[in-house]
Known about the structure:
By secondary structure, the chain is α/β, with parallel strands linked by helices.
Amino acid sequence: MADTALPTARPRRSRKPLKLLFSRSRIRRRVRELAAEIRRDYQGRTPVLVAPLKGAFVFLADLIRALDMPLEVDFVRASSYGTGTKTAGRVALTDISTIDVSGRPVLLVEDIVDTALTLETIRRHYLARGPADLRVCALLARRSALDAGAVVEYLGFAVPDGFVVGYGIDYAERYRHLPDIHVLEGP
Ligand code: IMP
Ligand code: MG
């Protein structure tokens, strides 16, 4: 019997071609370097690491294990309106955090800074709560965002334009599980 005759057969979603951008070993090395820098800068303090869900969760998980220092973890829910590969220009922030950050050092942990709209929205939200200081650690940031003045104190890699996936970063909820970071190619 042909596959297509099976009553449970579902149409296959097309898979776009992926081009390797950063291998898992390169990511691991860079995460260790970032962790060493952060550990040195926060010596004697217990920072609150705040990550927007969901894209940053894999990076955060690796970063905190590489940090090996006293720290706390919290999350916010951030989503830019719109679908596909374009930001719609507005960020919806849902505060699901449980830690009072007033007087505490806060480190925002982002997966990718694209237009920096998400970052700026979260930064404003957290600055209003009176942290001791607030810095940003991003695994990836667009060169265009950095050129436009986005402040990222701890940066993994600067990336050119092109939609990236893997290592927690999705396209329409897919590809988060890939251990390496790729550029999604095709229309
Ligand atoms: P921004 O607000 O434009 O800086 O976009 C930040 C968020 O958009 C990131 O945290 C990602 O969730 C998503 N994003 C931006 N660029 C990409 C990409 O190339 N691949 C996957 N997600 C992206
Ligand atoms: Mg996303």
